[in-house]
Write a structure and sequence with these properties.
The chain is 63% helix and 0% strand. With 248 residues, the chain is an all-alpha fold. The two termini are 31 Å apart.
Length: 248
């Protein structure tokens, strides 16, 4: 297994799993406009995941396309961070999770545009344009909820407190990133100061309180996931696994 294949799985799986989570809001959004917005975010993430997993299959060269990688792997083989697989909860929790991810994603994709691998750089360039919209959208909602009613403030703060311990994994690197450093893949730890600056500013404007650092969950990059991913995959993969090889 090459480092590039492993890295593409990480980038693709983050977006595939989070996109599926957002798709669960379809028809359940708080207002029609936001229902459509969440569906569009999910489609953007699914598109990004498709490109990454397609390239991963090409790099692996074992005749596994993006569909096989998405639908025919078990949870232990997924490389997404645990943050993106957590249940949606209420709208405030979904938005806070999205914002924490978006603030990191836009920084990562900006760096990956300079990758020496032309296809990876091209995927990042297109995805970065979408990510810039995503962060504007989620940040505006965090501010609106945090600086809104007493109830919306409470729910946003509760979500931030609950999700904070899952953010540390975004900045943990290992041999995969180190072996690709000369190819333009950034050290995850180098993204944290800029991420924290963006998050701190939005949290302050939302009149929320930034949680103190403490224990941080990790393991998703190595296939150690919460129980929630298995349930998500059973729903996402059931059609492809029930009718292997079927074409529509």
């Amino acid at each position: 297994m090459t480092a590039l294949f492993e890295y593409l799985l990480r980038v693709g799986d983050d977006r595939l799993v989070l996109g599926h989570r957002l798709s669960e809001w379809c028809g359940h959004g708080p207002v029609l406009e936001e229902d459509i917005a969440l569906a569009n975010l999910a489609l953007d993430l699914l598109g990004q995941a498709t490109h990454c997993l397609k390239l991963a299959g090409k790099v692996e060269d074992k005749e596994r396309d993006e569909d096989a990688l998405a639908y025919l792997r078990d949870a232990i083989d997924f490389r997404n961070v645990n943050l993106v697989e957590l249940p949606n909860g209420d709208f405030g929790r979904t938005i806070v999770r999205q914002f924490l991810f978006d603030a990191w994603s836009v920084l990562l994709l900006e760096k990956l545009q300079s990758a020496s691998h032309a296809e990876l750089a091209g995927i990042a360039a297109k995805a970065h344009k979408e990510a810039r919209y995503h962060i504007r959208h989620s940040a505006e909602w965090v501010i609106r909820l945090g600086d809104g009613t007493e109830e919306s403030h409470r729910r946003a703060q509760t979500a931030l407190d609950d999700l904070w311990s899952y953010t540390g994994e975004l900045f943990v690197g290992d041999e995969v990133e180190r072996s690709l450093a000369d190819s333009g893949v950034p050290n995850p730890a180098m993204l944290e100061p800029a991420w924290r600056e963006v998050v701190s500013d939005v949290v302050r404007r939302a009149t929320l309180t930034l949680p103190a650092n403490g224990y941080m969950h990790s393991g998703g990059r190595q296939g150690r996931h919460t129980e929630h991913l298995g349930h998500l995959l059973s729903e996402m993969q059931i059609l492809a696994r029930s009718h292997p090889g079927a074409k529509w």
